[in-house]
Amino acid sequence: MTGFSVKGFAKNHRRPIETLAEIRDHLRKLDFIHEKEDGGPLSVRVTELIQSAARLENRLEWGPAAPLVLPVLGATGTGKSKVFNSLIGRNISPSGFKRPTTLAPVLYLSREYVRPAVASGFLPGYEKRMAEDGVNFRIERLGELVIVPADNSAFGPGLLIDTPDFDSVLAANRAAAGDVFDRSDAVIFVTDAVKYADQAAWDYLDLIKKRDKRALLIVNRVRNRLSLEDFRRRLSEAGLDRPVFDLSDQPRLGDAALFSPDEPALKALDRQIKEWTGGLREQILAEEAGKDWMEFRAGLREGLLPALAKTAKELAGLRSGLEASAQAVHEGLPQKLSVSISSELKHSLLAQIQALFLRWDLLRYPRRLMSLPFSLVKDKVLAPLGLVQGTKGGRSSLDEEIERLFAANAESLVAMFQDYHGEVAELFNAGPLGRGLAARPNFADLAFTSDRVRSGYEKIRAELEGWVGGQAKELARNLNLGEKMTFYLAQVLSLGLFISIQVHTGGGFSFFDGLLDSVLAPIMSKITGSALSRDKVKAFEAEAVGRHLALCGELFDAQAQAYLDFLSQAEQGLTAADPLAGAFEKLDRTFESLK
Ligand SMILES: Nc1nc2c(ncn2[C@@H]2O[C@H](COP(=O)(O)OP(=O)(O)OP(=O)(O)O)[C@@H](O)[C@H]2O)c(=O)[nH]1
Ligand SMILES: [Mg+2]
């Protein structure tokens, strides 16, 4: 049920290439996100699928004309290079005491295969280097792939590869061994009498079984037949039915020496390779391509597509959750900012209008003269002792009240933002995708800090106060005659009142700044207010409240938008998933023609 038929593969191998490339493109556009729970990062899954699609594409492109890819695989120092050289009958890939000796895959192949082997689709990602006159490695050139062309290779359509150690201390070596294994058609597995039971060896033996890979197993340096028997027993226990050959230990064999071509293991190996590359080649190619397809298909259909659908659902849930909680916060803004600033702003407005009209206050000087002895006592004696505030540094109680209200509002805003951050964190932590997103480094920067909220509110305040100033000028300029009359009359009355109080207290009233502020200032502003029409004041108040709320709303919306924009990035990454399912269906149908 797995493989393709030799005939179908030979005839139709090019047909799925276009759709496969299209799918690979969609996969590349998926930008992820990880999900801790479901067997690891989704992005790892996507990367693996892209690689396996590329591998399959290369198999399909090369088609039935391809040589068989036959790597010699094994743990470090088991004698892979020596087996590889002995098989070819020439010292091609250095064999030595240094661990690891082989630092790159070494490809031995007929010259006719050089061009497709150098092409980017075959074992992609490696720096491919031709080595006509001998192979050498350099540690600073990891990530290479060395190509040794042969004019008449004894293995014809067989592409032999000496691989780096799959259990290497070098990650690049381990990765190269894995890549070559994934692209192989059949495997020559080399172990020795000491390492045959190692975990790394069994990881690969298990893979051979799982992928149903053709393989020939060689145990090198056998001194005692018992270890060989033990290996065979383990293989049969694991259900791994592959031919096993051994090479006995040859203590005097130098690095440059080869195994004798008469060794039964080498003879068997030679025979096996010729059988594979001979009559079986096209069948193996069709089968291996079929297995790659089945693996890719399962990875996409059972792995990725359902995971993507789940992700899309979770993303949509996150978005609607975010939108709902932002809306709730926005709607609650008038209650949260319950400390009304409108009446204070109104007083400030009236005080400013008043100030505009009192610029020519003739009674200012007599008033000051009357209170001079008291302010002197206050400023020179009491203020330095800290008992009262000096006259000049003092602010009116109206200023202080406005200050206090703005500060209170700033703190309610800060608290509101903090509540909102808590709510957002809860939303994101409710599912694996959200948790993954929240774990991204740029997520933490999305929440406005308390300082940012405070400085945002400072700007709101400055803007409001600027607006109030403008309104005061505007209103003062546009007072109608009746309002002006009332205003001047009120000024005269209030000044008269002030003077009579001062006279009765002998100027002592100036001593009590607080009283002056809290009794007189409101009276003055009331009088000024009464000069203005009620409608004008009401309209001002309504607009002041509206402006304050709108500005605070804008500050909050910027915060809510930051989260939504962050989510949009993830959604953007998912858009490639939409055409993926359709393209997959099409691909699935096309592959039917290869069976
Ligand atoms: N005495 C003896 N030495 C061997 C035998 N097989 C390999 N060697 C030596 O063991 C060392 C390692 O052999 P290599 O062929 O380089 O082994 P390898 O598996 O390719 O090693 P890496 O490329 O480092 O993974 C070399 O010094 C070889 O000469 C053997 O059967 N007998
Ligand atoms: Mg080697």
Search tags:
Rossmann fold; 19 helices; elongated; 8% strand; 8 strands; 2 domains; alpha/beta; 595 residues; binds guanosine-5'-triphosphate; binds magnesium ion
Write structural notes for this entry.
With 595 residues, the chain is an alpha/beta fold. The protein folds into two domains: 68-266, Rossmann fold, CATH 3.40.50; 342-584, no CATH class. It has helices spanning 6-12, 17-29, 42-62, 80-88, 114-118, 171-183, 199-210, 225-237, 264-277, 281-336, 342-357, 364-382, 397-428, 432-438, 450-477, 481-504, 513-531, 534-574, 577-592, and strands at residues 68-74, 106-110, 127-130, 144-150, 158-162, 186-192, 214-222, 244-248. It has an eight-stranded mixed sheet with strand order 3-4-2-5-1-6-7-8, with helices on both faces. Helix 16 runs antiparallel to helix 17. The longest helix has 56 residues, at 281-336. The termini are close together. The mean pLDDT is 86. Bound molecules: guanosine-5'-triphosphate and magnesium ion (MG). Magnesium ion binds at residues 80-81, 101-102, 162.
Short description:
The protein has helices at 6-12, 17-29, 42-62, 80-88, 114-118, 171-183, 199-210, 225-237, 264-277, 281-336, 342-357, 364-382, 397-428, 432-438, 450-477, 481-504, 513-531, 534-574, 577-592, and strands at residues 68-74, 106-110, 127-130, 144-150, 158-162, 186-192, 214-222, 244-248. With 595 residues, the chain is of the alpha/beta class.
